Amino acid sequence: MRIGQLSERTGTSRRLLRYYEEQGLLVSDRAPNGYREYDERYVERVLQIRGLLDAGLPTRIIRQILPCLNGPGALYVSDATPETIATLEHERDRMTERIHFLVRNRDAIARYLDAVLRAAPTALAVPAPAPDPTSAADRDRVRGTLR
């Protein structure tokens, strides 16, 4: 698929996909006309990259851990410096804390919804639409002239 198709399927701009390639996060094949070509696996890869960026990881760290996303056989640990390990431990702990807060907030919302739905199920019925003053029947009904 071309970059435009990958962009549409992942909701990621073409510019950002080119940036990912510049950072070594994606590698595209080139068609004879110079267009970037991506296979199907890049849809999931782009979504993984976006998730890691959303979690706060810098691209230099993402580049190092991307092989882990392919499975244990693809790991290269020779370039894991003490600084990298410390950064990853910090990011892992930060993500764990964030997950804890997200779960707590999700549970609070679920409890609230349960309470609301149990307390007033009829109060949540969809109200009838308001009369449309541009409709002749509604206009007559509002005026009280409908027969």
What is the topology?
Elements: H1 3-10, H2 14-22, E1 29-30, E2 36-37, H3 41-54, H4 59-69, H5 82-119, H6 136-143
Antiparallel strand pairs: 1-2
Content-based structural category: mainly alpha
The end-to-end span amounts to 63 Å
Number of helices: 6
CATH architecture of the largest domain: Orthogonal Bundle
Number of strands: 2
The helix-strand sequence is HHEEHHHH
Oligomer: single chain
**How many domains in all?**
2
- Give me the CATH fold name of the largest domain: Multidrug-efflux Transporter Regulator, Chain: A, Domain 2
Low-confidence spans: pLDDT under 50, at least 5 residues?
none
| Radius of gyration computed on alpha carbons | 26 Å
Give a verbal description of the structure.
The protein folds into 2 domains: 1-77, Multidrug-efflux Transporter Regulator, Chain: A, Domain 2 (Orthogonal Bundle), CATH 1.10.1660; 81-124. It is 60% helix and 3% strand. The chain has helices at 3-10, 14-22, 41-54, 59-69, 82-119, 136-143, and strands at residues 29-30, 36-37. The protein has a two-stranded antiparallel sheet. Helix 3 (41-54) crosses helix 4 (59-69). It is flat. The N and C termini lie far apart (63 Å).
Write a compact overview of the structure shown.
This protein is 60% helix and 3% strand. By secondary structure, it is an all-alpha fold. A two-stranded antiparallel ribbon has the order 1-2.
